[in-house]
Amino acid sequence: MSETTNTNKEKKKPPLNGRRALPSNNSNEEENEVPEMEAFGLIPRGFNPKDYLSVVDIHMFKELHETNKQQHHTDKYYNPKLIVRRGQPFQIQIDFNRPYKPETDQFWLEYLIGRYPQQNKGTYIPILVGDVLKPGEWGAKITHKENNSIRLSIMSSATCIVGKFRLYVAVWTPFGILRTRRNPATDTYILFNPWCQQDAVYLDDEKEREEYVLNDVGIVFHGNINDIKLRSWSYGQFEENILDACLFLMDKAELELSGRGNPIKICRVASAVINSRDDNGVIAGSWDNTYTYGVAPSAWTGSVDILLEYYSSKQPVRYGQCWVFAGVFNTFLRCLGIPARLVTNYSSAHDNNGNLQLDFFLDDEGKVDTRITKDSVWNYHCWNEAWMTRPDLPVGFGGWQVVDATPQETSDGMYRCGPAPVQAIKHGHVCFQFDAPFVYAEVNSDIVYSRREKNGAQVIEKIDTNHIGQLIVTKEVGRDGMMDITEEYKFQEGSEEERLALETAVMYGVKKQTPEDTMYQPQKDVDMDFQVQKVVLGSDFKVTITFRNKSGNYYTAATYLSGNIVFYTGVTKNEFKKHSFSAKLEPFSSSAFDVMIKSSEYLSDLLDQASFHFFVTARINETGKILAMQKAMVLEIPTLRIKTQGEAVVGKEMSVTVEFTNPLKQTLENVTLRLEGPGLLRTMKKEFRQVPVNSTLIWELKFVPKRPGLRKLIASLNCDALRHVYGELNVQIQKP
């Protein structure tokens, strides 16, 4: 293919280097100019292109109701162009200026992507018309001829690049090649195909494909292990311009076009570009409870606004926390056709030095010393799993892969994580790429409480092996319930297999410090536990501490309770409650002690997710041994009520009302409401200056549903005093 370049159309000519003849081809957006007449030499004076076969029109059958989009499961995309999935045939029709004669006429199709198309890189694809289509390989055959038209069935390769291709039809003449003009209407998006057995993302269960590829709403599980909360999230992968925004992310990450057929590469670069650290990516994270000049992470109801804002501004969108990164990542994966799900790990370890233990240092009173304690336990942490084969690893590691776009630690110099095979984490085979040791630590670390003696010796007071990764969940397939997938990640706590997986992980280089046995001798004959009463935000509640003395001795326990307001990442903002008392423990008996907590003690300092963290430490005076325990607790947050009025029919106006009653003992100021629903209405926002104590705000708006079927309305309320207030409603929209 020759290339004519037109200087005024060139934005920037990349510098050539001595190593490669062509600059890198890493933008789907950029194009080269393709000549309409490519002469073989001098053209004789009598030559008239009209004497030869020429193309009058090309029909792409790209309407939602036409066969291509129906058969390729792309009829939900709000996009006028043809969208097909790779490795599966699609139809087009070419109208010529006269009937096509196969004996003398010769034409072929050309698919091009990027600015420097090359055949050996898969960025220039010439397709000759043949008699048969081979499954999963590029090819075309004529299925129907009528007058001046022919109908073609075109097969794309099951490993081809995923992106937006330009289509040309070329006709051979004795003096040169005649080509159709550049016509954006014939552009063709090619996506991953979980329905095609040869595709690396093939998923064999139709119900799972409907959930993990085609469902445009999902559920985020949050709260904590003792109080699981859930909220809906609108992925909106089919909404207008979202597909282009997702392709732009790969351009932004400068992923070579020839690598864009490989889901492993795409996941790895996307996990870096979805956070703004080190590459000015999509979302800026903020965990400090001040969200000036941006949207609080809890206010977002879905991914669409975030992706569209980034696509237009090219600047990081403020702000996100783990579920926002995971929600946007899920949209990106499902939009491109990679099966994906959002996963929550309760009590997730963030282990700074990768030694499989979280070190909590206690001071003399048995309180955690925040100055030297660097590790933290997140109440929950959200990441994603993407489904694909792993030809780069030994057999058995394909399937679900952990990918995480929340910036926690760097991997190969950038903030990114994955893809790490879930199977490798379960069995401790953490030597297999990418980032398996980090994920292994998130679900398997031990918590070690230690105290420094006066002589400088470190004494281990307690080791808690069960606290981390207690529960790992995702949304059920086809329903809104919770599916427990903990055993995909780990064997039964205390089983022989678990022991073996740990030894394997240690053998493959996960650092594990073993405390000297002499150092650690816990108090075996007294058990301590505590329970926190569940209440609504703004109420008083109590913490009940129970001791069980299993020995025949009298003990007294110097007990200390510390109540802290924490970020959901387990990082403390401040201690709002200190309470010490002496507990008398009778032989062979249990005793319980209540500590009351008033709303006035915590309301002024409350953070985003109304999260508390309690430490209870007790020193048995007679033996000097320490019992220690920690628990997180989340207050109940009131919800929004959503109602609809009017007939729910496509194309007919209906109205929706959102209501909320202020439960706090203070006026809420600068309250923002958001409402969205994929296929129903774009995100709407409304501001209320003040909502007085016990008063109810009502917001009514009208909309016209665009798509039939079961749809979801999702709302959020946000202000400085109250965040994470959500509501949702399922709406069945009828066909007109």
From TrEMBL:
One of its GO terms (molecular function) is metal ion binding. Keywords: Acetylation, Acyltransferase, Blood coagulation, Calcium, Cytoplasm, Hemostasis, Metal-binding, Secreted, Transferase, Zymogen. Its cofactor is Ca(2+). Its main location: cytoplasm. GO terms for cellular component: cytoplasm; extracellular region. Coiled coil: none annotated. This is Coagulation factor XIII A chain. It comes from Crotophaga sulcirostris. The gene is F13a1.
